[in-house]
From TrEMBL:
Keywords: Cytoplasm, Nucleus, tRNA processing. It holds the Pfam family ELP6. Its main location: cytoplasm. PANTHER family: ELONGATOR COMPLEX PROTEIN 6. It comes from Dissostichus mawsoni. One of its GO terms (cellular component) is cytoplasm. The lineage of its organism: Eukaryota, Metazoa, Chordata, Craniata, Vertebrata. This is Elongator complex protein 6. It is found in: Cytoplasm; Nucleus. The keyword Phosphoprotein does not apply. Pathway: tRNA modification; 5-methoxycarbonylmethyl-2-thiouridine-tRNA biosynthesis.
């Protein structure tokens, strides 16, 4: 968990917005450090977390979380964390079939107030997915993935008043790259429309820098009357072994 990022988002384990759909994305960079931040944040907040890891093994996430002061093994043992590992379960979980594995994951999140043995009380449920782009490479259409994200938002965010965090990777050098209509750009645009908070990671426009690894654009979207209020801020960052540093915003804007 990165305290500087918590300060930017006005979030702590004791105080965070419920019912939020958070989209993490990157372009020619790596936003995976943000997945580790939100995982450790919600575990510290005593939320019940269902983590769908489509990219790495449990041991990978566990090793990094350990450096951030969180034990995923302990969280699993006490019934706080369910980890669905990799592509071997992705299709059955994310594209529901007769197999009820996906239903079991939602049942785990909906039983948010009690632990596995009923002895502990938990905060709101959280679903994390790293990363949705993998499904496109498996032949799943962008439309089907968007249907899944909409279903998760309806169940977890609206019905259960929990949070959803999803990571997606963008291909190409910019939004002007049209590419395949069923590709990552369509998925990115659809997810952006659904979410209430986005953190987009990209490289520095000036190229490589030893002291700064890249920049993060943070965008808040809130309903205001009949319209939507959008605020954007740009930060530079550097990732360390046990955390990350975020620097003063380069630009800030608000749009009604």
């Amino acid at each position: 968990m990165y305290t500087e990022l918590n300060s930017i988002l006005n979030t702590t384990p004791d105080s965070f917005t419920q019912g939020e759909f958070v989209l993490l994305s990157d372009r020619q960079s790596d936003a995976s450090f943000l997945i580790h931040h939100f995982l450790s944040l919600y575990l510290r907040a005593r939320c019940k977390v269902c983590f769908v890891g489509l990219v790495q093994s449990f041991n990978h996430y566990s090793a990094i979380s350990q450096r951030l002061g969180v034990s995923l093994t302990q969280a699993k043992e006490k019934g706080q964390l369910v980890f669905l590992e990799g592509q071997k379960e992705s299709l059955s979980v994310l594209i529901p079939q007769e197999n009820d594995t996906g239903s079991q994951a939602m049942d785990f999140l909906s039983n948010g107030e009690e632990g596995g043995d009923g002895s502990e009380e938990w905060g709101p449920p959280v679903l994390l997915v790293d990363d949705l782009s993998v499904l496109l490479s498996l032949g799943v259409s962008a439309g089907a993935v968007l249907d899944f994200s909409h279903y998760c938002r309806a169940i977890v965010c609206s019905q259960l008043q929990g949070n959803v965090v999803m990571l997606v990777r963008c291909d190409g050098e910019g939004e002007e790259d049209e590419g395949d209509d069923e590709g990552s750009e369509r998925l990115m645009k659809g997810l952006t429309h659904q979410c209430s908070l986005t953190l987009h990671v990209q490289g520095l426009p000036t190229g490589y820098c030893r002291d700064i690894h890249g920049q993060v654009e943070v965008c808040w979207r809130r309903r205001q009357g009949d319209g939507q209020y959008t605020q954007k801020k740009l930060f530079q960052y550097k990732v360390h072994d046990k955390g990350a540093s975020f620097f003063a915003p380069g630009t800030s804007s608000a749009v009604l």
